[in-house]
Design brief:
Blueprint: H1 13-17, H2 29-32, H3 36-51, H4 65-68, H5 87-104, E1 108-115, E2 126-134, E3 141-149, E4 156-160
Antiparallel strand pairs: 1-2, 2-3, 3-4
Protein name: Type VI secretion system baseplate subunit TssE
Organism: Corallincola holothuriorum
InterPro entries: IraD/Gp25-like, T6SS_TssE1-like, TssE1-like
């Protein structure tokens, strides 16, 4: 049974800590009402933040297992010199993105990242599709996001795919 758009959900810790009206005595109605649409928007925002963050250059020794999933390693490695014009480079970048999402986004049960075929071969923007199952009760909710890697600043824009 998939989630219903009206089903109440709990906001993430970050969303609960953000206060848009710090002078107000009560939480706004928007803070207490939280449905599937708001959950998807929150996940999209956090996913975009993850993909636009860069992890440390430092190599962490394997015996420091907890550091691998800590804030020290949050984000993607610097891929500015990575060759993404060929299939092998695009597949490697997709693998790196998938590993980062699985490591730092616990709301996803399953993740698959693929590079989309280029419709215009001269277009320098790399398009990536992220398919995942959002951890939800009683059943995981399927979500898809399209991401575009802007080649100059290496920024990633994430949009939810509808339908």
């Amino acid at each position: 049974m998939p989630l219903h758009s009206k089903q109440p959900l709990q906001r993430s810790l970050l969303d609960r800590l953000i206060d848009d009206d710090p002078t107000g005595v009560r939480d706004s109605k928007a803070m207490t009402n939280f449905g599937l649409r708001e959950l998807r928007d929150s996940v999209r925002r956090d996913l975009e933040a993850l993909l636009n963050s860069r992890s440390s250059w430092l190599e962490i020794p394997d015996h420091y297992e907890e550091l691998q999933a800590s804030l020290v390693n949050y984000g993607l490695p610097d891929f500015s010199s990575m060759q993404t014009s060929n299939l092998e480079g695009r597949q490697r970048l997709c693998q790196i993105i998938e590993e980062a999402i699985l490591r730092f986004e616990p709301r996803f049960v399953e993740v698959s990242v693929t590079a989309l075929d280029e419709e215009m071969p001269l277009d320098r923007i790399l398009k990536i599709r992220i398919n995942a199952y959002l951890h939800a009760d009683p059943l995981p909710e399927e979500v898809s996001f399209d991401s575009e890697l802007e080649p100059v600043h290496l920024g990633m824009l994430v949009k939810e795919v509808h339908g």
